[in-house]
Amino acid sequence: MSNIPKIVIVGAGYGGILTAQQLQKELKHNEANVTLINRHDYHYITTHLHMPAAGTDTIEHSRIPISQLIDEFKVDLVKGTVKEILPKEKKIVLEDGSLSYDYLVIGLGGEPETFGIPGMDKFALTIRSINSVRLIREHIEYQLALYKNDGKPGRLNFVVGGAGFSGIEFIAELADRLPQLAKAYDIDFNRIQIINVEAAPTALPGFDPELVEYAMDVLKRKGVNFRIGIPIKECLEDGVIVGEGEKIEACTVVWTGGIRGNGLIEKAGFEVMRGRVKIDDFLRAPGHDGIFIIGDSSLMLNPEGRPYPPTAQIAMQQGVVCAKNLAATLRKKELHKFVFSNKGTVASLGKGEAVAVVGKRKIKGWVAAQLKKIVDLRYLFIIGGIPLVLKKGRFF
Q: Can you tell which superkingdom this protein's organism belongs to (predicted)?
């Protein structure tokens, strides 16, 4: 029986893919057997999903076969859905079997955080996967087609809950797409409403106020109606209840109000806060030196004591450090502390528009939009080199 340690990576998101790729560089021959488990045989770029959801880009730009990203002589890919994580038994239970491990990396993506709002999990659509954005895109067009048959006004109202990055970027693409769809379906665009509802006192909470004001002005010119500082109290089949009982009729509600850690984490017995595990400086779960948690299900505090937001760049950086720490653990060497390096933040506002903060610089408009493209191209280069940039990159 082989004594080679078994490393299992669960999830092929930003953190999981970077962990697998870095392990390929770090580990020597037969130093460990590495297995990557993922529900699909592709990796998808989560930060692109708002575009195919609105219909302004194809799904193919957001999806990459995992076989193109890993060396299958060094990393085994298992396509399967994880049903249970059993830390005491050191086992991962899949729909059609199980895998044992010596070291585990949990890189499972998060789940929508509905904050207990009644009906939100039942009636709202969410941007969370390739299949979910395909559904949103088809649903939007279907509502316009139905309106031409039954004239129901709610079919022309599109409510987006949440004005964080995901919400704002989706709204921007939707505002670009709907005038084209209105023309295609012979509908007066002035009858269509895009309504953004945010409970916080500002859109893009935590972002620079000057850039928030610019972003809202851009989107208002595109026809977006903001309802800021007003919570959604209930989601219904035909709309939402907001504020003190006002009903907004809508046959389309897209919820982008937040994410929590994957439900499998809590079921596995880890102590969680909103589904996320407060990991140590080396990315390990408390009390489990052989289990690393990265990405959406991990919780790390910044120097001010506030949680880092679960972003792509932090998951990528965690993946690289996680792989280095796995190699160090195998060799009984000193582990590397994770220190987040903020490369900046960019929010797209649709075609030719964006806002960004890089260091102390505030950037907006066309220049910020080009920066957004550079950020996307950089990620493609990191995981797949120039060939992937040329195949999947958006240059125009």
A: Bacteria
